Amino acid sequence: MRPQTLSVIGFGAFGRLAARHLRPHLPLSVCDPAARSNDLPMVDAARAARADIVVLAVPLPHLEGVLRAIAPHLRAGAVVIDVASVKVEPARLMLDLLPDHVEIVASHPLFGPASAAGGLEGHGIAWSPLRGRAHRLLAAFLRARGLQVIPTTPDQHDRDMAVVQGLTHLIARSLSRLGPLPQRLATPSFTLLAAAAAMVQDDSPELLATILRANPHAAAVRQRFLAEAAGVAAEV
């Protein structure tokens, strides 16, 4: 059997993280016209689409354009995996725009360059197979790398992430706007809160918009949280 090939389309912060951990295991190429030169093969979209496994690490607003560009070039049996922070919309786009002979997985790594600076061991990845059977082998491969593969559906993922990510980023950005946070008299609980905020404060505006706007459940959770916070403040 010939070695599996993999392409990463999008070489931003997460694309670089994925490439660093995947390149020791299989031949890997990168597609990103805006990426700086590196020692990995840089290819165009058509060539990237001919890989056995195609990882889409592009911002959500660019996903539809990328899918339309690669769809005519995907080989039968190829596996396309997205890594967006929301899942309902990417799942819909992939099912609508990719040919029937392509296998599809909607995924969301529950970590990033900051949280996985020490390695992947113990981190989770949300895993929503949409079409095909290769997802089982891929999940086994990820578990062998130390990841926890968490089965879910796109809608359930977005419901959970509306709280997990939506509120985390809302609180983190709000804290950052207060100015420098106290450190000398910080309690352990505040130190943990500040550390959590620091882990996401440098995320791109595109990621923040995806988490707070593109998640169909985020607005309702955010409104409920703000109402509860106002209620607590009014009671004291």
TrEMBL record:
First and last residue of the signal peptide: none
Pfam families membership: PDH_C, PDH_N
PROSITE patterns xrefs: PDH_ADH
Keyword Cytoplasm set for record: no
Lineage top rank: taxon: Bacteria
Organism: Paracoccus angustae
Keyword Ion transport attributed: no
Stretches assigned to the Prephenate/arogenate dehydrogenase domain: 4-236
UniProtKB keywords: Oxidoreductase
Protein name according to UniProt: Prephenate dehydrogenase/arogenate dehydrogenase family protein
